[in-house]
Amino acid sequence: MSGGAPSSPPYELGNFCIDEYRPMKVIVIGAGFSGIVAGIRFPQKIPNVEIVIYEKGAGVGGTWYNNNYPGLACDVPSHCKDWSEFYASGPEIRAHLEEVVEKYKLMRYIRLQHEIVHAQYDEPTGKWHVRVRRPNPETGALEEIEDTADVLLSAIGVLDRWKWPDIEGLKDFKGNLHHTASFEPGPKTWQEVAESEGWKDKRVGVVGVGSSAIQVIAAIQPKVKKLVTYARGKTWIALSFGEETVTRLLGREPGESGNYRFTPEEIERFKNEPEFFNNFRNTLEMQFNCSYPFTLRGTELGQMVKNEALKNMKEKLAKKPWIADHLIPGFPVSCRRITPGPGFLEALCEDNVDFVPTEIKRVTEKGIETVDGQYNDLDVIICATGYDASYQLPFRIIGRNGVDINDKWSPHPVTYLSLAVDGFPNMFMALGPNSANASGMLLPIIEQHVMYAVEATAKLQRDRYKSIEVKPEAVRDFDQHMEAYFPRTVFTENCRSWYKLGKEDGRVVGLWPGSPLHAVKASMHPRWEDYNFERLDPVENRLHWLGDGYTYSEKTLTGDLAWYLHAPFLDIPPVPKDDSEA
Question: What is the separation of C-alpha 212 from the centre of its chain, rounded to a whole number of angstroms?
Protein backbone atom coordinates (compact mmCIF):
# COMPACT_ATOMS: atom_id res chain seq x y z
CA MET A 1 0.00 0.00 0.00
CA SER A 2 1.38 3.36 -0.99
CA GLY A 3 1.67 6.18 1.59
CA GLY A 4 0.19 9.69 1.47
CA ALA A 5 -3.23 11.21 2.15
CA PRO A 6 -6.26 8.98 1.58
CA SER A 7 -8.00 9.61 -1.73
CA SER A 8 -11.44 11.17 -1.78
CA PRO A 9 -14.39 8.97 -2.76
CA PRO A 10 -15.35 9.28 -6.44
CA TYR A 11 -17.68 12.18 -7.12
CA GLU A 12 -21.20 11.29 -8.20
CA LEU A 13 -23.76 13.62 -9.74
CA GLY A 14 -26.83 14.47 -7.75
CA ASN A 15 -29.94 12.59 -8.81
CA PHE A 16 -32.00 15.75 -9.17
CA CYS A 17 -32.60 18.63 -11.58
CA ILE A 18 -31.01 22.01 -11.00
CA ASP A 19 -34.44 23.48 -10.29
CA GLU A 20 -36.08 20.44 -8.71
CA TYR A 21 -36.90 22.41 -5.61
CA ARG A 22 -36.82 20.40 -2.41
CA PRO A 23 -39.74 20.85 0.02
CA MET A 24 -39.29 23.71 2.49
CA LYS A 25 -41.26 24.31 5.67
CA VAL A 26 -41.49 27.78 7.22
CA ILE A 27 -42.98 28.58 10.63
CA VAL A 28 -43.96 32.20 11.28
CA ILE A 29 -44.59 33.51 14.80
CA GLY A 30 -47.40 36.07 14.74
CA ALA A 31 -50.16 37.16 12.35
CA GLY A 32 -49.74 40.92 12.51
CA PHE A 33 -48.55 43.03 9.59
CA SER A 34 -45.29 41.05 9.25
CA GLY A 35 -46.95 37.64 9.50
CA ILE A 36 -49.56 38.61 6.92
CA VAL A 37 -46.88 39.81 4.51
CA ALA A 38 -45.04 36.51 5.06
CA GLY A 39 -48.22 34.57 4.27
CA ILE A 40 -48.39 36.35 0.92
CA ARG A 41 -44.74 36.45 -0.12
CA PHE A 42 -43.43 32.98 0.81
CA PRO A 43 -45.96 31.05 -1.33
CA GLN A 44 -45.56 33.63 -4.10
CA LYS A 45 -41.76 33.47 -4.25
CA ILE A 46 -40.77 29.99 -2.99
CA PRO A 47 -41.85 26.90 -4.96
CA ASN A 48 -42.78 23.76 -3.04
CA VAL A 49 -43.08 25.62 0.27
CA GLU A 50 -45.30 24.89 3.25
CA ILE A 51 -45.95 27.79 5.61
CA VAL A 52 -47.67 27.83 8.99
CA ILE A 53 -48.38 31.08 10.85
CA TYR A 54 -48.96 30.59 14.57
CA GLU A 55 -50.91 33.40 16.21
CA LYS A 56 -51.61 33.36 19.96
CA GLY A 57 -54.60 35.70 19.64
CA ALA A 58 -58.11 34.89 18.50
CA GLY A 59 -57.84 37.08 15.39
CA VAL A 60 -55.38 38.50 12.89
CA GLY A 61 -53.78 41.93 13.02
CA GLY A 62 -51.27 41.70 15.87
CA THR A 63 -51.21 44.98 17.77
CA TRP A 64 -54.22 46.17 15.76
CA TYR A 65 -56.20 43.16 16.98
CA ASN A 66 -54.96 43.23 20.56
CA ASN A 67 -55.51 46.95 21.15
CA ASN A 68 -59.03 48.32 21.37
CA TYR A 69 -58.65 51.25 23.73
CA PRO A 70 -60.54 54.53 23.31
CA GLY A 71 -59.11 56.73 20.56
CA LEU A 72 -56.84 54.02 19.13
CA ALA A 73 -55.35 55.27 15.86
CA CYS A 74 -52.15 55.30 13.87
CA ASP A 75 -50.11 58.26 15.13
CA VAL A 76 -48.54 58.94 11.74
CA PRO A 77 -50.39 59.70 8.49
CA SER A 78 -51.41 56.50 6.73
CA HIS A 79 -53.98 55.99 4.08
CA CYS A 80 -55.98 53.41 2.17
CA LYS A 81 -58.64 54.35 -0.31
CA ASP A 82 -61.68 53.87 1.93
CA TRP A 83 -60.29 55.01 5.27
CA SER A 84 -62.24 57.87 6.78
CA GLU A 85 -59.51 59.70 8.71
CA PHE A 86 -56.06 61.13 8.06
CA TYR A 87 -54.78 59.35 11.18
CA ALA A 88 -56.39 55.99 10.47
CA SER A 89 -58.42 54.54 13.34
CA GLY A 90 -57.60 51.19 14.89
CA PRO A 91 -60.86 49.54 13.80
CA GLU A 92 -60.32 50.59 10.18
CA ILE A 93 -56.73 49.31 10.15
CA ARG A 94 -57.85 46.02 11.68
CA ALA A 95 -60.66 45.69 9.12
CA HIS A 96 -58.17 46.35 6.31
CA LEU A 97 -55.85 43.60 7.55
CA GLU A 98 -58.78 41.18 7.77
CA GLU A 99 -59.69 42.05 4.19
CA VAL A 100 -56.12 41.37 3.02
CA VAL A 101 -56.16 37.98 4.81
CA GLU A 102 -59.43 37.11 3.09
CA LYS A 103 -58.30 38.41 -0.32
CA TYR A 104 -55.13 36.28 -0.32
CA LYS A 105 -56.83 33.29 1.38
CA LEU A 106 -54.31 33.30 4.21
CA MET A 107 -56.45 31.52 6.79
CA ARG A 108 -55.32 28.24 5.20
CA TYR A 109 -51.89 29.04 6.72
CA ILE A 110 -52.90 30.82 9.94
CA ARG A 111 -53.55 28.96 13.20
CA LEU A 112 -55.35 31.22 15.67
CA GLN A 113 -55.08 30.72 19.45
CA HIS A 114 -51.83 28.83 18.89
CA GLU A 115 -49.10 30.21 21.15
CA ILE A 116 -45.45 29.30 20.63
CA VAL A 117 -44.01 28.29 24.02
CA HIS A 118 -40.64 26.85 22.99
CA ALA A 119 -38.44 26.68 19.89
CA GLN A 120 -35.14 24.84 19.58
CA TYR A 121 -32.72 24.36 16.71
CA ASP A 122 -31.61 20.78 16.04
CA GLU A 123 -28.07 20.84 14.63
CA PRO A 124 -27.90 17.33 13.06
CA THR A 125 -31.02 17.89 10.92
CA GLY A 126 -30.91 21.67 10.53
CA LYS A 127 -34.56 21.87 11.65
CA TRP A 128 -36.39 24.05 14.16
CA HIS A 129 -38.51 22.09 16.64
CA VAL A 130 -41.38 24.14 18.00
CA ARG A 131 -43.86 23.51 20.80
CA VAL A 132 -47.25 25.20 20.48
CA ARG A 133 -49.96 25.63 23.13
CA ARG A 134 -53.52 25.57 21.84
CA PRO A 135 -57.05 24.69 22.94
CA ASN A 136 -57.95 21.12 22.03
CA PRO A 137 -60.30 21.29 19.00
CA GLU A 138 -62.82 18.97 20.69
CA THR A 139 -62.59 19.65 24.43
CA GLY A 140 -61.17 23.18 24.54
CA ALA A 141 -58.63 22.11 27.16
CA LEU A 142 -55.15 23.52 26.65
CA GLU A 143 -52.64 21.13 25.13
CA GLU A 144 -49.22 21.29 23.50
CA ILE A 145 -48.40 20.08 20.03
CA GLU A 146 -45.06 19.93 18.23
CA ASP A 147 -44.05 21.08 14.77
CA THR A 148 -40.81 21.31 12.79
CA ALA A 149 -39.57 23.68 10.09
CA ASP A 150 -36.54 24.46 7.98
CA VAL A 151 -36.90 28.21 8.63
CA LEU A 152 -38.25 30.13 11.63
CA LEU A 153 -39.44 33.71 11.15
CA SER A 154 -40.17 35.80 14.23
CA ALA A 155 -42.86 38.34 13.37
CA ILE A 156 -43.91 39.28 16.89
CA GLY A 157 -42.68 42.88 16.88
CA VAL A 158 -41.70 44.75 20.04
CA LEU A 159 -44.89 46.40 21.34
CA ASP A 160 -46.59 43.12 22.13
CA ARG A 161 -45.91 42.40 25.80
CA TRP A 162 -47.37 44.59 28.55
CA LYS A 163 -47.71 44.58 32.30
CA TRP A 164 -49.50 46.59 34.97
CA PRO A 165 -47.54 49.54 36.35
CA ASP A 166 -45.83 48.99 39.70
CA ILE A 167 -48.10 51.17 41.82
CA GLU A 168 -48.93 50.30 45.41
CA GLY A 169 -52.52 49.17 45.87
CA LEU A 170 -53.42 49.09 42.18
CA LYS A 171 -55.15 45.72 42.41
CA ASP A 172 -57.13 46.90 45.45
CA PHE A 173 -59.11 49.38 43.35
CA LYS A 174 -62.82 48.50 43.47
CA GLY A 175 -63.88 50.48 40.43
CA ASN A 176 -63.39 49.61 36.76
CA LEU A 177 -59.66 49.07 36.13
CA HIS A 178 -58.35 48.96 32.54
CA HIS A 179 -54.99 48.85 30.76
CA THR A 180 -54.90 50.23 27.23
CA ALA A 181 -53.12 47.08 26.01
CA SER A 182 -55.85 44.80 27.40
CA PHE A 183 -58.92 47.00 26.98
CA GLU A 184 -61.39 44.49 25.55
CA PRO A 185 -64.83 45.80 24.64
CA GLY A 186 -65.85 42.40 23.24
CA PRO A 187 -68.51 42.77 20.55
CA LYS A 188 -69.05 46.39 21.60
CA THR A 189 -67.18 49.54 20.62
CA TRP A 190 -65.37 51.44 23.35
CA GLN A 191 -68.09 54.08 23.09
CA GLU A 192 -70.70 51.42 23.89
CA VAL A 193 -68.60 50.25 26.85
CA ALA A 194 -68.42 53.84 28.11
CA GLU A 195 -72.18 54.11 27.79
CA SER A 196 -72.90 50.76 29.44
CA GLU A 197 -70.54 51.60 32.34
CA GLY A 198 -72.07 55.05 32.65
CA TRP A 199 -68.87 57.04 32.07
CA LYS A 200 -70.87 60.23 31.52
CA ASP A 201 -71.57 60.19 35.25
CA LYS A 202 -68.18 58.82 36.29
CA ARG A 203 -64.84 60.17 37.45
CA VAL A 204 -62.09 58.67 35.28
CA GLY A 205 -58.34 58.69 35.89
CA VAL A 206 -55.78 58.14 33.10
CA VAL A 207 -52.23 57.20 34.12
CA GLY A 208 -49.47 57.99 31.62
CA VAL A 209 -48.46 60.55 29.03
CA GLY A 210 -47.28 58.43 26.08
CA SER A 211 -48.95 57.94 22.72
CA SER A 212 -51.73 55.72 24.08
CA ALA A 213 -52.56 58.10 26.95
CA ILE A 214 -52.67 61.05 24.57
CA GLN A 215 -55.16 59.28 22.32
CA VAL A 216 -57.31 58.06 25.23
CA ILE A 217 -57.54 61.49 26.87
CA ALA A 218 -58.57 63.22 23.63
CA ALA A 219 -61.20 60.55 22.97
CA ILE A 220 -62.90 60.21 26.36
CA GLN A 221 -62.83 63.79 27.63
CA PRO A 222 -66.24 64.70 26.13
CA LYS A 223 -67.79 61.46 27.40
CA VAL A 224 -66.96 61.54 31.11
CA LYS A 225 -68.12 63.61 34.04
CA LYS A 226 -64.62 64.19 35.41
CA LEU A 227 -61.23 63.31 33.94
CA VAL A 228 -58.03 63.32 35.98
CA THR A 229 -54.81 62.87 34.01
CA TYR A 230 -51.72 61.68 35.87
CA ALA A 231 -48.76 62.79 33.76
CA ARG A 232 -45.48 62.68 35.67
CA GLY A 233 -43.36 62.70 32.51
CA LYS A 234 -43.06 65.31 29.80
CA THR A 235 -43.63 65.00 26.09
CA TRP A 236 -43.63 66.99 22.90
CA ILE A 237 -46.92 67.33 21.01
CA ALA A 238 -46.06 68.10 17.42
CA LEU A 239 -48.03 70.03 14.89
CA SER A 240 -50.16 67.62 12.91
CA PHE A 241 -48.15 66.49 9.94
CA GLY A 242 -48.74 68.01 6.54
CA GLU A 243 -51.85 70.07 7.36
CA GLU A 244 -51.24 72.59 4.58
CA THR A 245 -50.32 69.87 2.10
CA VAL A 246 -53.45 67.84 2.87
CA THR A 247 -55.63 70.92 2.54
CA ARG A 248 -54.10 71.72 -0.85
CA LEU A 249 -54.25 68.16 -2.20
CA LEU A 250 -57.90 67.78 -1.23
CA GLY A 251 -58.83 71.15 -2.71
CA ARG A 252 -60.17 72.44 0.59
CA GLU A 253 -60.28 76.04 1.69
CA PRO A 254 -57.15 77.14 3.63
CA GLY A 255 -59.15 77.63 6.84
CA GLU A 256 -60.14 73.99 6.90
CA SER A 257 -56.78 72.72 8.18
CA GLY A 258 -57.14 70.67 11.33
CA ASN A 259 -60.09 68.70 9.99
CA TYR A 260 -58.72 65.16 9.83
CA ARG A 261 -61.85 63.40 8.58
CA PHE A 262 -62.39 62.80 4.89
CA THR A 263 -65.75 63.66 3.39
CA PRO A 264 -67.79 60.97 1.57
CA GLU A 265 -66.99 62.78 -1.68
CA GLU A 266 -63.24 62.67 -1.00
CA ILE A 267 -63.40 58.97 -0.15
CA GLU A 268 -65.22 58.27 -3.42
CA ARG A 269 -62.50 60.13 -5.31
CA PHE A 270 -59.83 58.04 -3.57
CA LYS A 271 -61.65 54.85 -4.57
CA ASN A 272 -62.54 55.78 -8.14
CA GLU A 273 -59.78 58.13 -9.30
CA PRO A 274 -56.42 56.30 -9.16
CA GLU A 275 -54.42 59.36 -10.20
CA PHE A 276 -55.96 61.45 -7.42
CA PHE A 277 -55.29 58.76 -4.77
CA ASN A 278 -51.77 57.99 -5.95
CA ASN A 279 -50.82 61.67 -6.06
CA PHE A 280 -52.23 62.20 -2.53
CA ARG A 281 -50.35 59.26 -1.04
CA ASN A 282 -47.10 59.80 -2.97
CA THR A 283 -46.92 63.50 -2.11
CA LEU A 284 -47.49 62.89 1.60
CA GLU A 285 -44.99 60.04 1.85
CA MET A 286 -42.33 62.01 -0.03
CA GLN A 287 -42.84 64.90 2.39
CA PHE A 288 -42.80 62.57 5.40
CA ASN A 289 -39.54 60.98 4.20
CA CYS A 290 -37.88 64.39 4.36
CA SER A 291 -38.20 64.48 8.16
CA TYR A 292 -35.19 62.32 9.06
CA PRO A 293 -32.79 65.25 9.79
CA PHE A 294 -34.82 66.36 12.82
CA THR A 295 -33.66 63.17 14.58
CA LEU A 296 -30.03 64.35 14.38
CA ARG A 297 -28.42 66.70 16.88
CA GLY A 298 -28.04 70.36 16.01
CA THR A 299 -29.90 70.38 12.69
CA GLU A 300 -31.83 73.35 11.38
CA LEU A 301 -34.90 71.17 10.83
CA GLY A 302 -34.73 69.88 14.40
CA GLN A 303 -34.69 73.42 15.77
CA MET A 304 -37.53 74.48 13.49
CA VAL A 305 -39.70 71.52 14.56
CA LYS A 306 -38.97 72.31 18.22
CA ASN A 307 -39.88 75.99 17.80
CA GLU A 308 -43.13 75.11 16.04
CA ALA A 309 -44.04 72.51 18.65
CA LEU A 310 -43.28 74.94 21.49
CA LYS A 311 -45.43 77.65 19.92
CA ASN A 312 -48.25 75.21 19.20
CA MET A 313 -48.30 73.78 22.74
CA LYS A 314 -48.27 77.18 24.44
CA GLU A 315 -51.04 78.48 22.22
CA LYS A 316 -53.29 75.47 22.78
CA LEU A 317 -52.63 75.49 26.53
CA ALA A 318 -53.30 79.23 26.88
CA LYS A 319 -56.43 78.57 28.95
CA LYS A 320 -54.33 76.65 31.53
CA PRO A 321 -50.81 77.95 30.90
CA TRP A 322 -49.38 76.33 34.04
CA ILE A 323 -49.76 72.91 32.38
CA ALA A 324 -47.12 73.90 29.81
CA ASP A 325 -44.55 74.25 32.60
CA HIS A 326 -45.08 70.59 33.55
CA LEU A 327 -45.66 69.10 30.09
CA ILE A 328 -43.14 70.78 27.78
CA PRO A 329 -39.80 68.91 27.95
CA GLY A 330 -36.26 70.20 28.10
CA PHE A 331 -35.02 67.41 25.83
CA PRO A 332 -35.13 67.69 22.01
CA VAL A 333 -38.15 66.77 19.93
CA SER A 334 -38.04 63.06 18.99
CA CYS A 335 -35.84 62.02 21.94
CA ARG A 336 -38.89 59.97 22.84
CA ARG A 337 -41.76 59.00 20.57
CA ILE A 338 -43.41 62.14 19.24
CA THR A 339 -47.11 62.26 18.44
CA PRO A 340 -49.35 64.91 16.89
CA GLY A 341 -52.10 64.07 19.41
CA PRO A 342 -55.08 65.74 17.70
CA GLY A 343 -57.40 67.08 20.40
CA PHE A 344 -55.15 66.22 23.36
CA LEU A 345 -54.02 69.69 24.38
CA GLU A 346 -57.51 71.05 23.83
CA ALA A 347 -58.92 68.31 26.09
CA LEU A 348 -56.52 69.24 28.92
CA CYS A 349 -57.96 72.75 28.93
CA GLU A 350 -61.58 71.69 29.32
CA ASP A 351 -63.33 72.41 32.61
CA ASN A 352 -63.95 68.75 33.43
CA VAL A 353 -60.23 67.87 33.25
CA ASP A 354 -57.65 68.03 36.04
CA PHE A 355 -53.96 67.71 35.11
CA VAL A 356 -51.86 66.12 37.87
CA PRO A 357 -48.08 66.19 37.28
CA THR A 358 -47.22 64.75 40.69
CA GLU A 359 -45.98 61.20 41.22
CA ILE A 360 -48.58 58.67 42.35
CA LYS A 361 -48.04 57.36 45.88
CA ARG A 362 -50.70 54.66 45.97
CA VAL A 363 -54.07 53.51 44.70
CA THR A 364 -56.83 52.93 47.23
CA GLU A 365 -60.10 51.07 46.87
CA LYS A 366 -61.75 54.28 45.70
CA GLY A 367 -59.11 56.48 44.08
CA ILE A 368 -55.52 57.71 43.73
CA GLU A 369 -53.28 59.51 46.20
CA THR A 370 -50.16 61.40 45.05
CA VAL A 371 -46.94 61.90 47.00
CA ASP A 372 -47.92 65.48 47.91
CA GLY A 373 -50.94 64.17 49.82
CA GLN A 374 -53.55 65.11 47.24
CA TYR A 375 -56.33 62.57 46.67
CA ASN A 376 -58.97 62.02 44.01
CA ASP A 377 -61.95 59.69 44.23
CA LEU A 378 -62.32 57.77 40.95
CA ASP A 379 -64.78 55.33 39.44
CA VAL A 380 -62.59 54.21 36.52
CA ILE A 381 -58.80 53.99 36.14
CA ILE A 382 -57.18 53.52 32.74
CA CYS A 383 -53.47 52.68 32.80
CA ALA A 384 -51.79 53.86 29.60
CA THR A 385 -48.32 52.90 30.76
CA GLY A 386 -46.92 51.26 27.67
CA TYR A 387 -45.23 47.97 26.95
CA ASP A 388 -42.33 45.81 28.02
CA ALA A 389 -39.70 46.85 25.46
CA SER A 390 -36.88 44.77 26.98
CA TYR A 391 -36.80 42.26 24.10
CA GLN A 392 -36.86 39.50 26.71
CA LEU A 393 -39.23 37.05 25.03
CA PRO A 394 -42.00 35.31 26.99
CA PHE A 395 -40.90 31.94 25.60
CA ARG A 396 -37.56 30.23 25.00
CA ILE A 397 -35.76 30.19 21.65
CA ILE A 398 -32.75 27.86 21.90
CA GLY A 399 -30.01 28.02 19.28
CA ARG A 400 -26.71 26.20 18.87
CA ASN A 401 -25.04 24.78 21.97
CA GLY A 402 -28.20 25.28 24.03
CA VAL A 403 -27.96 29.09 24.07
CA ASP A 404 -31.22 30.84 25.01
CA ILE A 405 -31.82 34.01 23.00
CA ASN A 406 -32.91 35.83 26.17
CA ASP A 407 -29.46 35.14 27.63
CA LYS A 408 -27.86 36.19 24.36
CA TRP A 409 -29.85 39.42 24.55
CA SER A 410 -28.87 40.33 28.10
CA PRO A 411 -28.20 43.10 29.05
CA HIS A 412 -29.36 44.25 25.60
CA PRO A 413 -30.16 42.62 22.26
CA VAL A 414 -27.53 42.19 19.55
CA THR A 415 -28.30 41.38 15.92
CA TYR A 416 -27.07 41.59 12.37
CA LEU A 417 -29.00 44.38 10.59
CA SER A 418 -31.98 43.66 12.94
CA LEU A 419 -32.57 40.51 10.88
CA ALA A 420 -30.50 37.64 12.25
CA VAL A 421 -28.49 36.51 15.29
CA ASP A 422 -25.32 34.43 15.34
CA GLY A 423 -25.83 31.01 16.91
CA PHE A 424 -29.42 30.86 15.63
CA PRO A 425 -29.26 29.32 12.14
CA ASN A 426 -32.20 29.50 9.74
CA MET A 427 -33.94 32.07 11.95
CA PHE A 428 -34.86 35.56 10.79
CA MET A 429 -36.80 38.47 12.24
CA ALA A 430 -39.20 41.06 10.93
CA LEU A 431 -39.05 44.18 13.12
CA GLY A 432 -36.43 42.76 15.42
CA PRO A 433 -34.32 44.91 17.76
CA ASN A 434 -33.07 48.20 16.27
CA SER A 435 -35.53 48.08 13.38
CA ALA A 436 -38.14 50.75 14.12
CA ASN A 437 -37.95 54.36 12.99
CA ALA A 438 -38.77 57.76 14.45
CA SER A 439 -39.52 59.39 11.10
CA GLY A 440 -41.11 58.08 7.94
CA MET A 441 -43.09 54.92 7.27
CA LEU A 442 -42.64 51.52 8.92
CA LEU A 443 -44.45 49.30 6.41
CA PRO A 444 -41.74 49.40 3.72
CA ILE A 445 -39.27 48.14 6.36
CA ILE A 446 -41.63 45.32 7.34
CA GLU A 447 -42.08 44.25 3.73
CA GLN A 448 -38.35 44.31 3.05
CA HIS A 449 -37.53 42.35 6.21
CA VAL A 450 -39.94 39.62 5.15
CA MET A 451 -38.47 39.60 1.63
CA TYR A 452 -34.98 39.19 3.15
CA ALA A 453 -36.18 36.02 4.91
CA VAL A 454 -37.76 34.88 1.64
CA GLU A 455 -34.47 35.37 -0.23
CA ALA A 456 -32.54 33.46 2.44
CA THR A 457 -35.05 30.60 2.23
CA ALA A 458 -34.72 30.58 -1.57
CA LYS A 459 -30.94 30.30 -1.25
CA LEU A 460 -31.22 27.38 1.17
CA GLN A 461 -33.53 25.62 -1.26
CA ARG A 462 -31.79 26.49 -4.53
CA ASP A 463 -28.19 25.89 -3.42
CA ARG A 464 -29.00 22.83 -1.27
CA TYR A 465 -27.84 24.18 2.06
CA LYS A 466 -28.86 22.73 5.40
CA SER A 467 -28.26 25.94 7.31
CA ILE A 468 -27.46 29.61 6.95
CA GLU A 469 -26.05 31.43 9.98
CA VAL A 470 -24.75 34.97 10.28
CA LYS A 471 -21.09 35.24 11.30
CA PRO A 472 -20.32 36.50 14.82
CA GLU A 473 -17.94 39.11 13.41
CA ALA A 474 -20.78 40.53 11.27
CA VAL A 475 -22.92 40.94 14.40
CA ARG A 476 -20.01 42.65 16.16
CA ASP A 477 -19.51 45.01 13.23
CA PHE A 478 -23.17 46.05 13.24
CA ASP A 479 -22.94 46.63 16.98
CA GLN A 480 -19.86 48.80 16.49
CA HIS A 481 -21.61 50.75 13.75
CA MET A 482 -24.58 51.52 16.00
CA GLU A 483 -22.34 52.62 18.86
CA ALA A 484 -20.74 55.13 16.51
CA TYR A 485 -24.04 56.26 14.98
CA PHE A 486 -26.41 57.02 17.86
CA PRO A 487 -24.35 59.68 19.67
CA ARG A 488 -25.05 61.86 16.60
CA THR A 489 -28.79 61.66 17.29
CA VAL A 490 -31.25 63.18 19.75
CA PHE A 491 -32.17 59.69 20.99
CA THR A 492 -29.21 59.61 23.38
CA GLU A 493 -30.38 62.77 25.16
CA ASN A 494 -31.71 62.39 28.71
CA CYS A 495 -35.31 61.23 28.30
CA ARG A 496 -37.16 58.06 29.28
CA SER A 497 -38.15 56.07 26.21
CA TRP A 498 -38.91 52.54 25.05
CA TYR A 499 -36.18 53.20 22.48
CA LYS A 500 -33.74 52.73 25.40
CA LEU A 501 -35.34 49.83 27.27
CA GLY A 502 -37.61 52.27 29.10
CA LYS A 503 -34.66 54.10 30.65
CA GLU A 504 -33.57 57.74 30.56
CA ASP A 505 -30.18 56.96 29.11
CA GLY A 506 -28.20 54.00 27.85
CA ARG A 507 -28.24 51.78 24.81
CA VAL A 508 -30.69 52.55 21.98
CA VAL A 509 -32.28 49.18 21.13
CA GLY A 510 -35.48 50.17 19.38
CA LEU A 511 -34.38 52.23 16.40
CA TRP A 512 -32.55 51.66 13.16
CA PRO A 513 -29.24 53.58 12.81
CA GLY A 514 -30.38 55.73 9.91
CA SER A 515 -33.45 56.88 8.04
CA PRO A 516 -36.35 54.53 7.15
CA LEU A 517 -35.31 54.61 3.50
CA HIS A 518 -31.77 53.75 4.61
CA ALA A 519 -33.18 50.74 6.52
CA VAL A 520 -34.98 49.49 3.42
CA LYS A 521 -31.89 49.88 1.24
CA ALA A 522 -29.71 48.07 3.80
CA SER A 523 -31.70 44.84 3.48
CA MET A 524 -32.47 44.91 -0.24
CA HIS A 525 -29.38 43.02 -1.39
CA PRO A 526 -28.30 40.32 1.10
CA ARG A 527 -24.55 40.07 1.70
CA TRP A 528 -24.20 36.30 1.73
CA GLU A 529 -20.50 36.73 2.51
CA ASP A 530 -21.61 37.71 6.03
CA TYR A 531 -23.02 34.20 6.56
CA ASN A 532 -21.71 30.69 7.13
CA PHE A 533 -23.37 27.84 5.27
CA GLU A 534 -23.66 24.09 5.89
CA ARG A 535 -24.28 21.83 2.90
CA LEU A 536 -27.31 19.60 2.87
CA ASP A 537 -25.59 16.71 1.07
CA PRO A 538 -22.49 14.90 2.45
CA VAL A 539 -20.50 15.79 -0.66
CA GLU A 540 -17.29 17.82 -0.79
CA ASN A 541 -17.92 19.26 -4.26
CA ARG A 542 -19.42 22.71 -3.76
CA LEU A 543 -21.19 22.55 -7.12
CA HIS A 544 -23.18 19.43 -6.31
CA TRP A 545 -26.32 21.57 -6.62
CA LEU A 546 -25.89 21.51 -10.41
CA GLY A 547 -27.53 18.08 -10.32
CA ASP A 548 -27.86 15.76 -13.30
CA GLY A 549 -27.78 18.35 -16.09
CA TYR A 550 -31.53 18.67 -16.54
CA THR A 551 -34.00 21.36 -15.69
CA TYR A 552 -37.24 20.03 -14.26
CA SER A 553 -39.36 21.05 -17.25
CA GLU A 554 -37.02 19.27 -19.65
CA LYS A 555 -36.87 16.09 -17.62
CA THR A 556 -40.61 15.84 -17.11
CA LEU A 557 -41.66 17.51 -20.41
CA THR A 558 -43.95 19.82 -18.45
CA GLY A 559 -44.28 23.56 -18.14
CA ASP A 560 -42.84 26.25 -20.38
CA LEU A 561 -39.66 25.23 -22.17
CA ALA A 562 -39.21 28.71 -23.63
CA TRP A 563 -39.56 30.66 -20.39
CA TYR A 564 -36.60 32.88 -21.33
CA LEU A 565 -38.83 34.62 -23.91
CA HIS A 566 -41.17 35.97 -21.24
CA ALA A 567 -41.06 38.25 -18.21
CA PRO A 568 -39.51 38.34 -15.69
CA PHE A 569 -36.51 36.77 -17.48
CA LEU A 570 -37.10 38.82 -20.61
CA ASP A 571 -36.04 42.36 -19.88
CA ILE A 572 -36.04 44.51 -23.01
CA PRO A 573 -33.82 47.58 -22.52
CA PRO A 574 -34.98 50.99 -23.74
CA VAL A 575 -33.45 52.24 -26.98
CA PRO A 576 -31.31 55.34 -26.37
CA LYS A 577 -32.63 58.52 -27.92
CA ASP A 578 -30.66 60.50 -30.44
CA ASP A 579 -28.88 63.54 -29.05
CA SER A 580 -31.35 65.73 -30.91
CA GLU A 581 -34.27 64.06 -29.08
CA ALA A 582 -32.74 64.18 -25.62
Answer: 16
